[in-house]
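Hallway conversation turned thread

IA: we were arguing at lunch whether anyone had actually written out MATH domain-containing protein end to end. Turns out nobody had. So, for the record, here is the sequence (176 residues) and right after it the structure tokens. Reply here if something looks off.
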Amino acid sequence: MGSQLSSSRVKECRPIATSSTAAASEETRTHVMKIDGYSKLKQLFKSGHYTTSIPFSVGGHDWVVKYYPNSSRQAAGYVPGYMSLYLVLASAGAGDVRAKARFSLLDKDGEPVASCSHEVPEHTFRGKDSGWGVANFVKQEDLEGSAHLRGDSFRIRCDITVVAWIRSKETKGKKC
């Protein structure tokens, strides 16, 4: 009798490929702040003093714009004779939030004035009252000599983008 050789394959058990997902989402909104009574605010608020916009929500967080009519003295690159603008995280318990902004002086038609628009690069705001902005937004004498100051008022637009990272958990395949 002949012998029969049988060959059997041994199944190797190992996990099927794993996968995970990392995705970023962004939310962009616009807030317009009207400054009424510019000359009076300029008299009332000395350098380093400010007023704020009402709070507005973007990316699940509350924000305010700080307007310094006579510059922010504590800012790097401080130059007297300018107005300063800062975006400030106003949410309590927010932790770290990544955002970027663009501040623009608006013309009479509500359009940004190209020469008076400033990008605020992406920044990590480290909790409530953390701010980032433009120390030398517009020279006061330039604004005062322009058509953009009408009836002692003007408007500033803040376009803010909040970046949120969403990560899913690792997904493992089934074993044999």
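OS: looked through it. Residues 35 and 154 are 5 Å apart (CA to CA).
IA: good, adding that to the notes. The chain has one domain: 23-166.
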